[in-house]
Amino acid sequence: MTSITTLPILSHGEEDLAGRWLPDLGPIYIKQRVERLTRRYITVEHLRDRIAELPQQFHCPKPRPWSSLRWNAIAADQISGISVETFCAILQGTINTEAPIHGYTQASRQYLTHYYPRMARFVGGTVDAAGQTTSPGLWELEEKRHTPALIAIYKQLAGKKPVLVPYAARPYTSSGAPRADLYRHGLHRIATEYGATCLYLWMMAYTTGPLQAVLGELLIDEINHMTKFWGFGRWAYPQTNLGTIASTLTQATVRKWRQPGLQGSLLHTLRRMTQELAWGQWHVSHQLTFLYSFDQVMRVLWHWDQSLTPSYLEALLGDRPGGNYNADQLVQDSANRL
Ligand SMILES: [Fe+2]
Ligand SMILES: [Fe+2]
Questions:
Q1: Which residue in 80, 121, 176, 244 has the fewest CB atoms around it within 10 Å?
Q2: Could you tell me the residue range of the domain that residue 37 belongs to?
Q3: Poorest-confidence range of 172-181, 293-302, 316-325?
Q4: Three-state SS at 209
Q5: Reported pTM
């Protein structure tokens, strides 16, 4: 990956990580910058490398070091095509969505621990008999630097501290069908990592210099986690397909409608995300470029997904504990718990 630390703050028309930088970027330029960022950071080869290193990271977990970043040089003139106020409102929401990472990792660890202890350790580390963390997981170590980074950006741009609204992570809840619970939970995790990937890529399209460099580090982390969760899910649930995903998502949504207090559906997550990110205040051109980022990233993911054959994944991650879990059974198990 190109080192960004030595790049000067750019003036009119110079190239940055997303292409040509202009102080008044319009939607057409932003669209091109989104494409350029996707080609730079999210290629099939890159995703292949991220899943291929998973066994080694099970064995020897080490967080990816960040480049040295010029925090004090972050300034409002490194934003173009969106107002600083809207950008700060988005940052504020992102800060509240990233926390509390420890709660997220511990819920994921509990869903994984019975069938997939290696992945449980990767996301949530190890705990003692009383449930206290004895060593954090790699996912947590990498994610927990995001909130402080976003707070530092916010302070530089707004000249004040952001308002932190603490949320409790949704705790582990068993329905009695652990495979189906894990599948639903995993889809959720992949969706949030994918959302974060698209968000940071989109924010990079509107920024340059030291600000863009920090967002680049967040982006690389999110791509890494999204890829590992997706690839692992394809190995753990090889029989599943688009139909299974659709059924599971529909069931989760129906469950939410039947039990309005339930905090378990993707619909709920999506609604919370759009509220947090102040979506209603965005200009329509921002909404369109944001959706375009989702489209561009998903195209690469689908293309890469074709290479995730059962034989490739078994060679990489070994045999599945407990054998195959039939897709019909998965849908049935989920439905039985409604
Ligand atoms: Fe994050
Ligand atoms: Fe993440």
A1: 176
A2: 15-336
A3: 316-325
A4: helix
A5: 0.90
Instruction: Judge whether 197 and 133 are in contact, CB under 8 Å.
Output: no
- Two tokens, residue 6: 């030595």
- Condensed to tens digits (0 to 9), the pLDDT of residues 229-254 reads 999 999 999 887 766 776 776 666 56
> Could you read off the pLDDT of 95-117 as tens digits, one per residue?
998 988 899 999 999 999 999 99
Residues 6+ apart with CB under 8 A from 65: none
SS3 category, 88? helix
Q: Ligand 1 centre from 98 Cα, in Å?
A: 5
Q: How far is the CA of 24 from the centre of ligand 2 (A)?
A: 30
Distance (Å, whole) CA 32 – CA 176: 48
How far is the centre of ligand 1, averaged over its atoms, from the C-alpha of 315 (Å)? 29
How remote is the C-alpha of 247 from its chain's centroid? 22
In a domain, 167, yes or no: yes
Would 8 be classed as within a structural domain? no
In whole angstroms, how large is the CA radius of gyration of the chain?
Answer: 20
- What is the C-alpha separation between 304 and 326, in angstroms, rounded? 23
Q: Quick one: average pLDDT of 24-43? A: 96
| 75-98 residue pLDDT tens | 999 999 999 999 999 999 999 989
Question: What's the structural domain count of the chain?
Answer: 1
In a domain, 9, yes or no: no
Residue 1 lies in a domain: no
Q: How far apart are CA 238 and CA 322, in angstroms?
A: 13
Q: Which residue has the tokens 């293309």?
A: 303
- Gap from CA of 219 to ligand 2 centroid (Å): 9
Query: Which residues surround the ion ligand 1 when the cut-off is CB under 5 Å?
Result: 98, 143, 146
Q: Which ligand does the CA of 194 lie closest to?
A: 2
The percent of residues above 70 in pLDDT, for the chain, comes to 85
pLDDT of 267 higher than 90 = no
Of the candidates 302, 281, 289, 284, the one whose C-alpha atom is nearest the C-alpha of residue 204 is: 289
Mean pLDDT of the chain: 88
Cα end-to-end distance, the chain, whole Å = 46
Q: How many angstroms does the Cα of residue 160 sit away from the middle of ligand 1?
A: 22
Residue type, 12: H
